[in-house]
Write a structure and sequence with these properties.
- The chain contains twelve helices and eight strands.
- With about 300 residues, the chain is of the alpha/beta class.
- An eight-stranded parallel beta barrel has the order 1-2-3-4-5-6-7-8, surrounded by five helices.
- Strand 1, helix 1 and strand 2 form a beta-alpha-beta unit.
- Helix 9 packs antiparallel against helix 10.
- The longest helix has 17 residues.
- The protein is globular.
- It starts with 13 loop residues before the first strand and ends in a 6-residue tail after the last helix.
Amino acid sequence: MAPTSTPQTPFGRVLTAMVTPFTADGALDLDGAQRLATHLVDAGNDGLIVNGTTGESPTTSDAEKAQLVRAVVEAVGDRAHVIAGAGTNHTHHSVELARAAEKAGANGLLVVTPYYNKPPQEGLVRHFTAVADATGLPVMLYDIPGRSGVPIETETLVRLAEHPRIVANKDAKGDLCATSWAIARSGLAWYSGDDMLNLPQLAVGAVGFISVAGHFVAGDLRAMADAFLAGDTAKATAIHQKLLPVFTGLFRTQGVMTTKAALALQGLPAGPVRLPLVELTEQETEQLKRDLTAGGVQLG
């Protein structure tokens, strides 16, 4: 059973896109995943995204994905929403992943725009609808044209919002004009998928965040959201500005690489990345330390 939610915040307000811990030899580290998931919920996250891009889903097998969902659900129980990434650029495969995630105990699905094959908007409608029809789980769309090559247009979001199980959108489009119109017209619960735009997205109607920085600053993110929603924009802005070095540091290079390096610095489970990702250089690690320290993150 997932935590209490509302139509306005169906997955909570502060969620972290969780890395997938691996052992030193690159195998799935289920014990580490459970320990990390517990740590993140204890730190104030309402939910965890597993098998997303930050979870290195392109390099994990279908069996590993199911194992990871089961392990994280077992670790956090009803204290947090566990949202499973199920999107690929193959609709039938996405349906299979969605059903496997439901069977493994996920509370919801994150479904990214099909990437590389550049489908038209009608193809997106049919793809997302097929996945949403496949299970009884609520679905969050994931709009990230910088990775997928195709945006989900506002008219498409409006159409998809008519589906009873498509309830939210993770927005990493980086276009506040399009975001404003889509929020106003679709009625979907809106989650910022770009840490640097968390506060601006709140200003145009987002209800929360799916954050990479939430591995380290979930409490600050909640305080920022609470302050903004209470009308204390000065406090919200101050928190946003405090976190700028963290947001910048985690994305100076590829975000999974930096996040796993930072977790290792804190003594938390992470392990290596899988190729084609690589470990940070010594210089990159030193810069990351400076960035995180400037943003108030305590390192080991």
